[in-house]
Design a protein that fits this description.
Elements: E1 2-5, H1 15-24, H2 27-30, E2 35-38, H3 41-51, E3 56-60, H4 77-83, E4 87-90, H5 93-99, H6 103-115, E5 119-124, H7 128-132, H8 136-147, E6 157-161, H9 175-193, E7 201-205, H10 210-217, E8 225-227, H11 234-243
Parallel strand pairs: 1-2, 1-8, 2-3, 3-4, 4-5, 5-6, 6-7, 7-8
Bound molecules: 1,3-dihydroxyacetonephosphate.
Length: 248
């Protein structure tokens, strides 16, 4: 899977970019990977309408844990599904930092996604300070344990490892570092959910660009990418998709 997180970017005029992505996502590529675009919530319905009949799926960037109610400004997973989303990112580090989302809150959101029939893309990742202190594995392990609900499966969950210090900075971990963290995530998922969990996709995210995608995505236990900045342009986003060979 290659997923694009547009964050707080995109206006109605961005439809032209989505159209280019739809046109450029040729069948040979579509046979190898799932392509997901997560625009801001204001564009989900338009994007879902436009991508109908194509191989591109539309996702959201966050949801509330409840299905409905008095929560001004929030959107439920059911509403996102109703607007045409088939997936939702939960626990992105920007949500954790900007909105104080805890592992418990993220877990509740992932459960809400499942309840609405959405694929939950659950994000984990260490800060620069945590990496420098040598705490990466325990931190990511703790986030994983706290943020992933019981009954996670390949059908309802994708994990995204996004080191906070690599997001939007142009910095990336080495392949060895990526493999170490992804390997730990895989081991923990299998330990908790059984052998079937080896099919849960684990995406890498943080400064993935067309020119480093092949290197990062061929790392062991990397099943795709969660892309920020480079997902805003069809050329870059499709370039990353082409670099992903789909292998493990
Ligand atoms: P960048 O690709 O812009 O570093 O963002 C990564 C990200 O946060 C995707 O969720």
């Amino acid at each position: 899977m290659v997923a694009g997180n547009w964050k707080m970017n995109g206006l109605g005029a961005s439809m032209a970019e989505l159209e280019k992505m739809i046109q450029g996502f040729e069948p040979a590529l579509a046979a190898r990977l799932d392509l997901l675009v997560c625009p801001p919530a204001t564009l989900i319905a338009q994007f879902a309408w436009k991508s109908k009949g194509s191989k591109i799926a539309i996702g959201a960037q966050d949801c509330h844990a409840k299905a409905f109610g008095a929560h001004t400004g929030d959107l439920s997973a059911e509403m996102l599904r109703d607007a045409g989303a088939s997936a939702v990112i939960v626990g992105h580090s920007e949500r954790r930092a900007d909105h104080g989302e805890t592992d418990d809150a993220v877990r509740a959101k992932a459960e809400a996604a499942w309840r609405a029939g959405l694929l939950a893309i659950i994000c984990v990742g260490e800060t620069k300070t945590e990496r420098e202190a040598g705490d990466t594995l325990p931190i990511v392990g703790r986030q994983l344990k706290g943020s992933v609900p019981e009954k996670a499966s390949a059908a309802n969950t994708v994990i995204a490892y996004e080191p906070v210090w690599a997001i939007g900075t142009g910095l990336t971990p080495t392949v060895k570092d990526v493999e170490e963290v992804h390997g730990m995530i895989r081991k923990e998922l299998v330990k908790r959910f059984g052998e079937a969990a080896s099919a849960i996709r684990i995406l890498y995210g943080g400064s993935v660009k067309p020119d480093n995608a092949a290197t990062l995505l061929k790392a062991a236990d990397v099943d795709g990418a969660l892309v920020g900045g480079a997902s805003l342009k069809a050329g870059d986003f499709l370039g990353i998709s082409r670099a992903y060979s789909g292998g493990r």
